[in-house]
Amino acid sequence: MKVVKFGGSSLASGEQVKKVYNIVTSDPDRKIVVVSAPGKRNSSDIKVTDLLISCADKYLKNEDASDIFGTIIDRYHSIAKELHLSNDIIQTITDDLLSLLNGDKSNPDSFIESVKASGEDNNAKLIAAFFKHQGLDAHYVSPKDAGLLVSNDPGNAQVLPESYERLYELRKKSGIIVFPGFFGYNETGEVVTFSRSGSDITGSILANGVKADIYENFTDVDAVYAVNPNIVDHPKEIRELTYREMRELSYGGFSVFHDEALIPAFRAGIPVNVKNTNNPEAPGTKIVNERENTNGPVVGIASDEGFCSIYVSKYLMNREIGFGRRLLLILEEFGLSYEHIPSGIDDITVILRQNQIDEKLEDYIVKRIIEDLQADEVKIVRNLALIMLVGEGMRQNVGTAARASKALAEANVNIEMINQGSSEVSMMFGVKEAVEKKAVQALYEEFFVRVMV
Ligand code: ASP
User: Fold this and answer.
1) Structural domain tally of the chain?
2) Interatomic CA distance for residues 427 and 27, integer angstroms
């Protein structure tokens, strides 16, 4: 049995939905189809999920939302029209959305959650209607009926372990199941969504629950590329990755597959195949437990910007027991989550996403660290980019860091910091955002283009 998930761009128009139908029907093992909400049809388009969030926001503020409501319904309508579906399905979607929007707003978070999740929920109904219209034995299944229970953490739900056993029951259902991605229900029966792009997570949970043979994740690229194609033209496609490599790359900035989506599939040992809806014959990228190490130490290079570092220096820091804990305690007090902590004898740097800290908070934190920890120097540096070199092969290879720093030096890139994770699957370089592209291009050249002698 295969679980297949289709992302928003694969469902953005009737033409795309027909491709989805062809993919599903070309393989009788494709029994569970997880769908996103309609995504962008072109780069200037707006995702239905974003429209829904704005619409819910307007309702909360008692502002006129008729335009945006109309735009949302039009999106479904144009898809249904292209697929020659009757107006019944549009009526169902309109009624559902209206009843959500006019529903209880006493808890704004939970109101937004249910409106936001309706994008996938109604799209799943539409896709099921189309499959039926084509003569398939297909059914929409609600996450509530299937028992997909999640924690009560709006916009960041985590699956509850008891879900898996319940989801196993889906195996008994006949025909094709069309299942909305992106959300589950908390213990009191309210909708709670995963983090953005979370339909990948639903697919992985379902694959684990039904003990699928494979989880196929259909998107709009032929494969996971070794580097961001917006930075390097026509980068190398990656054929095979381990779960850990994919997790590191997704975390490092690869958006093709959600970084939280690997765990459920990994726990059940289910391989993931990232494929292209627009070119389903292409082999795509397989994510597996172990791979043959044939292609050098580095499998991919991810990069992301928007980081800042808090540099703290104090003479004899290495001898002061509890220094690190007290520093992190200050960050915890402000609800700040950190990403990396490279350290030296007398200094430590904490790297965080900078959108968590505005200037006022920055001043306050610096003052607190100086006062509470009697630090000699505290400095916050903004606008950093983190570049991750990822590859299981780095473990067996000597000299990867040397090659990387040489390539960066030759490109005249100053390295602000280096951190090698203890797993040795990734190596992180912090650079100024302004030189991010140049740095990534130099590293790509070194590890993927230059032939070693
Ligand atoms: N539609 C949701 C989002 O835009 C979830 C998804 O597409 O996976 O984040």
Assistant:
1) 2
2) 40
Nearest CA to ligand 1 atom 7: 197
Is the distance from the beta carbon of residue 217 to the nearest atom of ligand 1 less than 6 Å? no
Note the pTM of the prediction, 2 decimals.
Answer: 0.89
Three-state DSSP state, 170: helix
Of 382, 372, 378, 374, residue with least CA distance to 332? 372
Mean pLDDT in residue range 270-299: 91
In ligand 1, the atom with minimum distance to the C-alpha of 182 is: 5
126 belongs to a structural domain: yes
pLDDT in tens, 301-346: 999 999 999 999 999 999 999 999 999 999 999 999 999 999 999 9
User: Ligand 1 in contact with 228 (CB < 6 A)?
Assistant: no
Same domain, residue pair 208 and 320:
no
Rounded Cα distance, 265 and 317, in Å: 42
Residue-number span of the structural domain to which 418 is assigned:
300-452
Distance from C-alpha of 115 to C-alpha of 53, rounded to nearest angstrom: 7
Given 190, 220, 250, the domain boundary residue is 220
**186 and 54 both lie in a single domain:** yes
* pLDDT of 272 higher than 90: yes
**Reduced to 3 DSSP states, what percent helix, strand and coil does the chain have, rounded to the nearest 5?**
45, 20, 35
Residue 202 in any domain: the answer is yes
Strand (E) or helix (H) holding 183: strand 183-185
Q: What pLDDT does residue 453 have?
A: 46
- Give the model confidence (pLDDT) of 173-197 as tens digits: 999 999 999 999 999 999 999 999 9
